[in-house]
Design a protein that fits this description.
Blueprint: H1 7-15, E1 20-24, H2 52-75, H3 83-99, E2 124-126, E3 136-137, H4 140-153, E4 159-165, E5 168-175, E6 178-184, E7 191-193, H5 196-199, E8 215-224, H6 226-238, H7 261-266, E9 276-278, H8 281-294, E10 302-309, H9 312-318, E11 328-331, E12 337-349, E13 355-366, E14 369-375, H10 379-385, E15 392-397, E16 403-408, E17 433-435, E18 442-444, H11 453-461, H12 473-481, H13 498-504, H14 510-523, H15 528-534, H16 542-552, H17 555-560, H18 563-567, H19 574-585, H20 587-598, E19 619-623, H21 631-640, E20 644-646, E21 655-658, H22 664-672, E22 676-677, H23 679-685
Parallel strand pairs: 3-11, 19-20, 19-21, 21-22
Antiparallel strand pairs: 1-8, 2-7, 4-9, 4-10, 5-6, 5-8, 10-11, 12-13, 12-15, 13-14, 15-16, 17-18
């Protein structure tokens, strides 16, 4: 996929900017007729016989589906399909529009560049020069045709072949040698977002050029290395947050740029390494193959190779269409597949308790690296392919360079194999493992399972639960390793080991150790809703915990409640009710809660403040920075007047309270037609 700015990706770029790097990428593409497409063979022998209404219906469906995936990819950074699957949809659309040009519409995805410009990162800025997109090709024949076409149009053209980095497209404008503005791709034609403040903290972005050029604009890619991405996702999982889909901030685009590597290096600007200068179609194809062979060894993701003219005059001569330049093209690598034999299926337990099966097979080489393992995801995936130990399977690497099993070669299946079942027992601790309703996940039900203890403790001490300041991942990991923490109740026994902790330095010397122990002691007086959140009951977050405490007022009373009583609580469903009763029925959980109570952790809720009920029955979501109120203060104000505060916008939301720098929640509220209030509007509702 090409172009656009996914919302989630921009959050990555903002919060983990010290880990990202920017590469200069001046890529343009040439429109070229798509040939030898796999789907072409599926069309009727006589297209004229095809009902025009059926064609219109398919076009409508394709455009809607592609727009949906564009939004998921560019603006939400949460793609649902692989790059290859997306490419096939787009190729089908292009083929139909080529066959029926009278049915092409202005808002068709084939006529658009990139995604939409978002306001979450800053104000919108007009492009001085459009940040155009790449037309993708998929075969050697298309590459040769492109090169030969330019050789006919130009005298002895020289080509550059380089990696197509999968990152966030960004333009940097310098005036009199100083960085004036950084802009995202946005819609690629008219405007993008001003992300200057974010760009200034990227190490490779030069704040000032050696030569004070009157005006100088470069285009590049902000990307995250795969190792850093893995660390980010590990942290997301530890905090119980949704992992990011992939390291890219958006699909790598091709950009119209005054292209001179000598000038770039002279100005200290980082450029793509390992590019190849070519003069013939054979040399171009060899360069593409070489990049393809090395892509598995790169520290960052690429989603293809770019072929472009290496002469500015020739580029100007060829020009561009309304969507793409005519002097460059992008090659997308096909998924590489090889057969191998599954020798065993291993079960691992993640830090959230989810049991994941992994196929271990005879080593094969894909995309330049040795591969011998691939996830089987869940029982549904295993059943759909009927994967068995001893089976011969076809393995490929997706666009994200992740090994995946495509299919089982049943003709090579040995006799005596049996269907594989994950089972109902945790492979680590032996506790019951239950498949969650309406999901494909099977999870260990023991929160103190060694495989998920660290995550359980991080959730307990986290901001949304007991909020124990200074109790971070490193301290928890060290205390588990040394045997001080085996469950959440052990946190409140750490004071008994003060001298040993100071001597070992596990959480710091005397000052830091005492500071942490004081924070632990202070947390005992937290509202019991925080304690319920910290229990880590599946599906019970902070909002649900507050509703439970409003209804039952006491954890001992909640422990005795039946499913019917819990179902009577606002927004409680059968799955949540079952999870709660199952948690409190567990003997080990009962022992821990008894221990917590004995240590003085608060179990009874305070009597609710008497409010005027002006917001009774209304649900609010808070986003952005308000003028005078912090988010917690705003939530307390709403709740004191009988309202309810939740974390996400839905059709059930009555009002969104939005301050400065409001993000995706504001956009969703606008889409759903939910009333939006600023701080003054909220105060007006309660009569202040």
């Amino acid at each position: 996929m090409a172009g656009g700015v996914p919302c989630r990706a921009k959050q990555l770029a903002r919060h983990i900017l010290p880990r990202v790097r920017i590469f200069e990428k001046r890529l343009h593409i040439c429109y070229h007729k798509v040939q030898n497409l796999e789907f072409a063979r599926k069309e009727p022998e006589n297209p004229m016989e095809q009902d025009i209404q059926a064609v219109k219906k398919e076009l409508t469906k394709l455009r809607k589906e592609i727009r949906h995936h564009n939004d998921r990819y560019y603006n939400e950074d949460n793609p649902e399909i692989s790059d290859y699957e997306y490419d096939q949809l787009m190729l089908r659309l292009k083929a139909l529009e080529k066959q029926y040009p009278e049915l092409i519409t202005k808002n068709s995805p084939t006529q658009m560049v990139g995604g939409r410009a978002m306001r979450t990162a800053g104000v919108l800025v007009k492009h001085d020069v459009p940040m155009l997109s790449l037309a993708d090709v998929f075969s050697k024949e298309e590459i040769y045709a492109f090169v030969e076409e330019l050789q006919q149009a130009l005298k002895d053209p020289e080509f550059v072949v380089e990696e197509k980095i999968d990152g966030l497209s960004m333009a940097l404008r310098y005036r009199d040698g100083k960085l004036e503005r950084a802009i995202t791709r946005g819609d690629g034609i008219v405007q993008g977002e001003d992300v200057t403040a974010n760009a200034r903290v990227i190490d490779d972005v030069r704040q000032e050029l050696p030569d004070p050029l009157p005006y100088f604009e470069i285009r590049g890619e902000v990307y995250m290395e795969k190792a850093a991405f893995d660390r980010v996702n590990e942290r997301q999982e530890l905090l119980g947050l949704k992992p990011f889909a992939n390291p890219r901030n958006c699909a790598a685009g091709t950009l119209r740029q005054l292209d001179s590597r000598i000038t770039m290096h002279a100005q200290g600007i980082k450029t793509i390494h390992g590019y190849r200068v070519c003069h013939t179609a054979d040399e171009v194809w060899q360069a593409i193959e070489a990049i393809g062979e090395s892509r598995g060894d790169l520290a960052y993701d690429i989603d293809g190779a770019v072929v472009k003219l290496n002469n500015l005059v020739d580029r100007e001569k060829l020009g561009a269409t309304s969507k793409v330049p005519r002097w460059a093209i992008a090659y997308k690598y096909p998924p590489e597949e090889k057969e191998t034999v599954i020798r065993k299926i291993e079960l691992s337990v993640g830090r959230t308790g989810r049991i994941t099966p992994t196929a271990v097979f005879d080593p094969i080489r894909l995309c330049g690296t040795s591969v011998e393992r691939a996830t089987l995801h869940n029982q549904d995936f295993i059943d759909s392919l009927d994967v068995r130990i001893g089976d011969t399977v076809r393995v490929y690497k997706s666009g994200e360079i992740i090994p995946k099993i495509k299919e089982v070669v049943t003709s090579k299946r040995p006799a005596g194999t049996e269907p594989f079942r994950i089972g109902d027992t945790c492979p680590v601790c032996g506790a019951p493992a239950i498949r969650e309703a309406d999901t494909a996940d099977i999870r260990c039900q023991n929160p103190n399972c060694p495989a998920q203890l660290e995550n359980h403790l991080l959730n307990f001490v986290g901001r949304n639960a007991m909020d124990i300041k200074g109790f971070g991942e490193a301290a928890i990991h060290a205390l588990i390793e040394e045997g001080y923490l085996r469950n959440i109740a052990d946190i409140y026994h750490l004071k008994e080991h003060r001298d040993a902790l100071i001597e070992s330095g596990l959480v710091g010397k005397e000052k830091n150790t005492d500071k942490l122990l004081a924070a632990i002691e202070a947390s005992k007086q937290n509202d019991p809703a925080r304690l319920v959140t910290g229990f880590g009951i599946p599906g019970i977050g902070r909002a649900a915990a507050r509703e439970l405490m409003r209804a039952f007022r006491s954890i001992p009373v909640l422990m005795q409640a039946g499913e019917d009583e819990i179902l009577a609580v606002r927004d409680m469903g059968e799955i949540s009710a079952q999870a709660i009763t199952r948690f409190f029925a567990d003997a080990e959980n009962q022992r821990e809660i008894k221990d917590l109570s004995a240590q003085g952790v608060k179990m009874e809720a305070d009597e609710p403040a008497v409010g005027d009920g002006k917001l009774a029955g209304k649900t609010f979501v808070i986003t952005g920075t308000l003028r005078t109120l912090g988010r917690k203060e705003c939530a307390a104000l709403i709740e004191n007047h009988g309202g309810r505060v939740t974390g996400s916008v839905s059709k059930k939301t009555d009002y969104l309270v939005a301050g400065e720098a409001a993000g995706s929640k504001l956009q969703k509220a606008q889409t759903l037609g939910i009333p939006i209030l600023d701080e003054a509007g909220l105060r007006g509702l309660i009569g202040e």
